[in-house]
Amino acid sequence: MAILSKGTTFSTGDQVTATNLNALVDSATFATGAVDDSTTALDSSTPKKIIVKNAGITSTQLATDAVTTVKVENNAITLAKMATQADQTVLGNVSGGAAVPTAVPIVGAAGILINNDSLGTDDTKGATQGNIKAYVDASSTDGFTPTASASDTKSVTLPNGLIMKFGRVNASASTTTTVNFSDFGGNFSNSVFSVVLTVENATSGTNTVILNAQPTTSSFVIKNQLTTAEDVNFIAIGR
Q1: pTM greater than 0.85
Q2: DSSP annotation of 115
Q3: Going by C-beta distance under 8 Å and a sequence separation of 6 or more, which residues neighbour residue 217?
Q4: pLDDT score for 224
Q5: Domain spans in the chain, listed from the N-terminal domain onward
Q6: Rounded to 5 degrees, what are φ and ψ at 232?
Q7: What percent of the chain lies above the pLDDT cut of 90?
């Protein structure tokens, strides 16, 4: 099949002149045989030119690595065009340095969340719901259980270090009574924030049983201004 259509057609006996030869070349056009009509075609101009046919370029015509980042429009790649990845994974980088993103497990030894009930202090690792529940459940027994030193005295140390002591003492009549924290689970380590007294059966008046002085980390003093001994409940808070 011809690729070119001649600009001049010679017959037997025709004289070959410079004009005829120039016309043969200058007036030549592409014939239909010059294109494959799948990747290339002839346009509609005069004379016709060879063009890339619409939708004529496929992956076969593209060289490996031919499409560079700058040739891809912003937001042009949809999720449907991305490679599938394993369930419960996300694209990310947990290598500790710059790296090509990989499919990182959401939960796993090398994942975003580390499934380990022994929670550590790493600021770059997350905990699962199960880890947090296990920590809270453990705290409910390890961190919140009162430490009893007698049947009517208790001391509770919270995970943040706050200590609450509460108990019942008998305040002698018309005098002072020293209450030692060592009898209620141990002394406070740093300071005492508050001691609140409640008299069970005050015989008369108000403010008849009071703190005699500022509490210390080891004790406080009750002053009973009544002529009868009184049972006093207390709550002490400190660290």
Answers
A1: no
A2: -
A3: 181, 187, 188, 189, 190, 191, 192, 238
A4: 95
A5: 4-52, 83-142, 147-238
A6: -125, 130
A7: 38
DSSP secondary structure letter of residue 57: -
- The candidate with the shortest Cα–Cα distance to 36, out of 16, 51, 15, 47, is 51
Whether the bond into 159 is cis, omega within 30 of 0: no
Measure the CA–CA gap between 190 and 236, rounded to whole angstroms: 13
Rounded Cα distance between 203 and 141, Å, is 41
Separation of alpha carbons 72 and 220, rounded Å: 77
Sheet holding 163-171, edge to edge: 147-150, 153-157, 163-171, 230-238, 192-199
CATH class of 147-238: mainly beta
Determine phi and psi for 140, rounding to 5 degrees.
-65, -20
Residue 70's alpha-carbon distances to 67, 74, 99, 100, 149, in angstroms, are 8, 9, 20, 18, 74
Instruction: Please state, in angstroms and rounded to a whole number, the distance separating the CA atoms of residues 152 and 143.
Output: 21
